[in-house]
Specification:
Blueprint: H1 2-25, H2 31-38, H3 46-67, H4 79-95, H5 100-109, H6 113-134
Length: 139
Amino acid sequence: MTAFLAPLAGGALIGAAAALLLLANGRIAGISGILGTLLGPAARDRAWRVAFLVGLLAGPALFRGLTGHWPEVRIGAPWPMLVAAGLLVGFGTRLGAGCTSGHGVCGLARLSPRSFAAVATFMAAAIVTVFLVRHGVAR
């Protein structure tokens, strides 16, 4: 049952945070846009962007405070592959004008046609990648 409740609670918190940011600030909770604009030369609204990102980074510490232990993280890939994957994700968010959080959580909720197309592309790429990796084609 815990395997079901933890992801459900996490999803509800993500949805609530996205809705609160949209209602309170009129802003979309797309992480790549928040970070990308913050790092730009003329960052507007710097305070809420920093607060949002600090909140993301503080999540594991909050988890530890509530449960008494750090969340378990298992990464089965070597560091060079993780760095390459991170760079590809960054490139993809620029190419797709947003990330999975912006398009998938916020864009779909706003019925954005561009977000529907982006999420369909994300999912298709993910399905193909998992198939290739699990069947040894990408090894």
